[in-house]
Design goal:
Length: 254
């Protein structure tokens, strides 16, 4: 009997020590669980990119999330260096790694997390047939140039109402204005051309768009918005793709 009583007393002592020493893994205040983990700037940036990508349904339109992240990285670095205004929330992305049969130009409103337009865009005839694979900053190359641009002023030229582009990557697209690389309308950017020859027609290096949407494109992105052209070129590098902005990123307030 005395032995049994000893075991009962020991069990009760062990239970009391366990109850007293137990601590919850999360702090609870006012019936709300408070997480102790603080996300770093790069994690917040990745969440920001993912949120816009998913909310705007960009995957359904064929946009690669890695290309979108590059575009947003450049956009934030441009804002950080005051090369685009803080109120400017429109970006344009062109992905020349895709077939010209695909709608590979996207205009995106980052503030409203919405897709403004997804449409066809032509590449230069010197860059390849259906998919662009060669790129140049040289005049008379008739090749497209990769990288970051500012969509500048509107003018009326031989292709009608057009939009001048200023290349921001030295040695990559910095000769865009001198070369006359602009956004303009072209009749060969349409489904009929794809049906007839199996791809879009090609320009002399300009990112030409359909006459049906050219005014919408120009009116939406004119006046200093960012354009990013992606392509299959392992030699392409840009200071605008460094991690300065993501490493210091603070999510904008809605």
């Amino acid at each position: 009997m005395r032995k049994n009583l000893w075991w009962i007393i020991s069990a009760l002592l062990l239970f009391s020590v366990t109850v007293i020493s137990w601590k919850p893994t999360s702090a609870i205040k006012s019936n709300k669980i408070v997480t102790t983990k603080t996300l770093g700037a790069k994690e917040v940036f990745a969440q920001y990119v993912s949120d816009i990508y998913n909310t705007a349904n960009l995957q359904q339109t064929g946009m690669d999330v890695a290309v979108f992240q590059k575009a947003v990285t450049g956009y934030l670095n441009l804002k950080l260096s005051n090369k685009i205004s803080q109120s400017n929330n429109i970006i344009t992305v062109v992905d020349f790694s895709k077939s010209s049969r695909e709608k590979r130009m996207w205009i995106i409103d980052l503030l409203n997390k919405s897709l403004v337009l997804n449409t066809w865009v032509a590449h230069g005839q010197g860059s390849g047939d259906d998919i662009a694979s060669r790129f140049s900053n040289n005049n008379e190359s008739h090749q497209s140039s990769l990288g970051f641009y500012l969509a500048s002023e509107v003018y009326v030229g031989k292709h009608g109402r057009s939009l001048k582009l200023d290349g921001l990557d030295a040695g990559i697209n910095s000769a865009a204005r001198a070369r006359g690389i602009v956004i303009h309308a072209a009749d060969y950017v349409c489904q009929n051309t794809i049906n007839q020859i199996g791809r879009l027609g090609r320009s002399f290096g300009c990112p030409a768009v359909s006459p049906e949407v050219s005014d919408q494109v120009i009116n939406t992105i004119k006046g200093g918005t960012m354009l990013y052209i992606n392509g299959n070129d392992s030699n392409y590098t840009s200071k605008l793709l460094d991690e300065t902005a993501p490493a210091n990123f603070i999510a904008p307030k809605a």
